[in-house]
Amino acid sequence: MFKKFHVTKPNRTGFMKSEVTFFSLMIYLKTLIKSIYGYTPMIIMLTHFFMA
């Protein structure tokens, strides 16, 4: 997946493709972090419940 970045002389289409995959990955990570932050209070409550 990350082999595109190791190419010494990438063509324009390959660069654009890797850029698009990078942006989609960033959006996916953003949504993942948002969902994790949404579930954080529940996780903290569960950990406190299990640690008690």
Tell me what the structure shows.
The chain is mainly alpha-helical and 52 residues long. The chain has a domain at 22-52. The chain has one helix at 12-51. The longest helix is centred in the middle third of the chain and has 40 residues, at 12-51.
Helix content: over 70%
Instruction: Quickly give the structural class.
Output: mainly alpha
| Share of residues in strands | under 5%
Count of individual beta strands: 0
Please give the radius of gyration in angstroms. 19 Å
Principal-axis shape: rod-shaped
Largest sheet: none
SSE run: H
- Residue windows where pLDDT falls under 50 for at least 5 positions: none
Structure described in brief:
By secondary structure, the chain is mainly alpha-helical. The chain is 77% helix and 0% strand.
What would the keywords be for this entry?
52 residues; mainly alpha; rod-shaped
What is the strand and helix layout of this fold?
Elements: H1 12-51
